[in-house]
Amino acid sequence: MTADVKKETLGFQTEAKQLLHLMIHSLYSNKEIFLRELISNASDAIDKLRFASLEDESLLEGQADYEIRVEVDPENNTITLSDNGIGMNREDVIENLGTIAKSGTASFLESLTGDARKDSQLIGQFGVGFYSGFIVAERVEVHTRKAGEAPDTGVLWESHGEAEFSIEAKPRESRGTSITLYLKDDCKEFADDWRVRSVIKKYSDHISVPVMMAKPPAPPAEGEEDKAAEESEVEFEAVNEATAIWTRPRTDVSDDEYKAFYKHVSHDFEDPLTWSHNKVEGKLEYTSLLYLPARAPFDLWNREMSRGLKLYVQRTFIMDEAEQFLPMYLRFVKGVVDSNDLSLNVSREILQQDPAVESMRNALTKRVLDMLGKMAKDKDSDNYANFWKQFGTVLKEGPAEDMANQEKIAKLLRFSTTHTDSEVQDQSLEDYVSRMQEKQDKIYYVVAENFNTARKSPHLEVFRKKGIEVLLLSDRVDDWLMNHLREFDGKQFQDVARGALDLSSDSDDDKAAQETLAKESEALIERISAVLEDKVSEVRATARLTDSVACLVVGENDMGAQMRRIMEAAGQAVPETKPILEINPSHPLAQLLDGEADEDRFANLAHVIFDQAMLSEGGHLDDPAEYVSRLNSLLVELSKA
Ligand code: ADP
Hints:
Blueprint: H1 2-5, E1 8-11, H2 14-26, H3 33-55, E2 68-73, E3 78-83, H4 90-98, H5 104-111, H6 116-122, E4 137-145, E5 155-159, E6 164-169, E7 176-183, H7 193-204, E8 211-214, H8 225-231, E9 236-238, H9 255-266, E10 274-280, E11 286-292, E12 309-313, E13 316-322, E14 334-339, H10 348-353, H11 355-377, H12 383-395, H13 398-401, H14 406-412, E15 416-417, H15 429-434, E16 442-447, H16 451-455, H17 461-466, E17 470-473, H18 478-484, E18 487-488, E19 491-495, H19 508-520, H20 522-532, E20 538-541, E21 550-553, H21 561-569, E22 580-583, H22 588-594, H23 599-616, H24 624-640
Parallel strand pairs: 2-8, 12-14, 16-17, 16-19, 20-22
Antiparallel strand pairs: 1-6, 2-3, 3-7, 4-5, 4-7, 5-6, 8-9, 10-11, 11-14, 12-13, 15-17, 18-19, 21-22
The structure holds adenosine-5'-diphosphate.
């Protein structure tokens, strides 16, 4: 063990270096956050010990009173935070404080904007809280010893926050960790008792262990100054509330306290959009405190992103990221659930099978959907619009994942539609239904790769002409969503680019006119079919077009074009299907085609029309060069004529 005793100097991992540099030089506008981060770490360390001691009581070394101490020394310009939590041994220290082993660091550095205020807000999200000490300190010392291990396994870690840190053995009687910050000249305020108290009150009231600070000494009696100075034993008092916030009655907790607690559980620096705090009694007993963040985390789309609630059992911390309590499509929800029914040694595996967890999950899911519903109804606030902007695409996964709540989720969906013709998704299905025409019995939608393609889709022409509203869908999940969303308010959804157009609102006259049209164009349709045999499954005349000459339609049971492109991009095998080509026989180009006697020219024009129909729905041509050459030969002939 002698090698360990020697002082050893090690280099930080490259990314840690960058991060430290950043911390020290640019994250200066919100200095006081370091206190919150370090107290939060201390509280986590205590939670960890509390949990580990359920299995092995000897870890407590006969001392089960948990506390965090904050001591300031204005003479030497230091502040020291101590906890009697789990502590660290040499390996832990190197692992936790020497490298930033977390994959989040690289993404953190990438996502930096250079705007120091915003950047400082991001720090917490990436689990780099400890390093925030270097915002205010020119040197940081960590003296720590792991619970249950011998005093001589104590370790002293030290760094100036530049390229290196040193580590050496230093015995420590008590378990836990003390972090001493040697404050920079312009950060002396954090050696001031009053200043530090106020920051702790602001950020750490909800921490369930007491954060203790020295009581200001009573003024000594006359003539006894020296004696008082020698004898006075420092007394400590708690600065924070130190009760778990969710155990308190709702009416007792201020909004600021709720917000501070949110920041603790979520590592988010912004205030939450809203929260819901509930105590459930009856067959199952539990308390939940659920928050909706205001902003999507950088890794929302990473399937491995941290998600889930902090789980407590009878107020004892059990685990972070207990994902069994909410479905995947609500993965943005943060918060705490504290159960009286689960056993203290519950594991993730047990959670997956426990019927109590299942019913809690159902109830919590409803709770979140209700919270969203309430927010959506509040017309005076932008909260729901903001929520939708951040998390709408995640919520769209809901109808597929959670059939039981489909109707509830459907009410929460927001869309772009031809009614507003705006890219802003702010129309609900209820809005749509309230505007439906008298005989209309379907909810129409179009799916395209982007908003503009959707809005300009030739399929919409007849709908615009007749004033029938169509939902404009262009998010990646939309085809997936519409595959699962079959009905709303008793009305079926209909993709306007799928199957034969059947407008229930059409009058008998309209229908008769369409039949005549089909009859008259039979010969033309047949000629086109012969030319495009390899490319289409069918050619037919349509009444859905007014301005365009042709459009492509997907067979009733075939995969939608957007879904097909997504699957192909993901390297998935997609079953080969051919689209249906619909022709607008009254369009001048169709009439030109009809009168074309030259078979070559006819073929060229038919191919061009097909390719254009493909392009206007955002599709890609199999052979773009051929399209160009066909079109050019037609243009050359035109110029000769
Ligand atoms: P995070 O807390 O998000 O994991 P930090 O950079 O703040 O990231 O801390 C890194 C790790 O260092 C923690 O995960 C923990 O294992 C360890 N650590 C930090 N502070 C303490 C402490 N007071 N007691 C024990 N371990 C600690």
